[in-house]
């Protein structure tokens, strides 16, 4: 199969990026792709983060 060159992950937006997901994603070197993204039917804002693979 084909290997992916990039990976994307999402998490809910929080004040000062203060939760376990944010700390893990930043520690792994993920950077912002989209901030404040809204999904239909969910009032929360999400962030989409990404980085090149492999980690």
UniProtKB/TrEMBL annotation:
Entry annotated with the keyword Transferase: yes
Lineage: superkingdom: Bacteria
Listed GO MF terms: transferase activity
Keywords: Transferase
Protein name: GNAT family N-acetyltransferase
Organism: Siccibacter turicensis
């Amino acid at each position: 199969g084909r290997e992916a060159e990039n990976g994307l992950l999402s998490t809910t937006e929080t004040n000062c990026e203060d939760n376990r997901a944010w700390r893990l994603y930043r520690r792994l070197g993920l950077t912002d792709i989209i901030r404040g993204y809204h999904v239909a039917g969910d009032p929360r804002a999400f962030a989409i983060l990404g980085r090149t693979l492999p980690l």
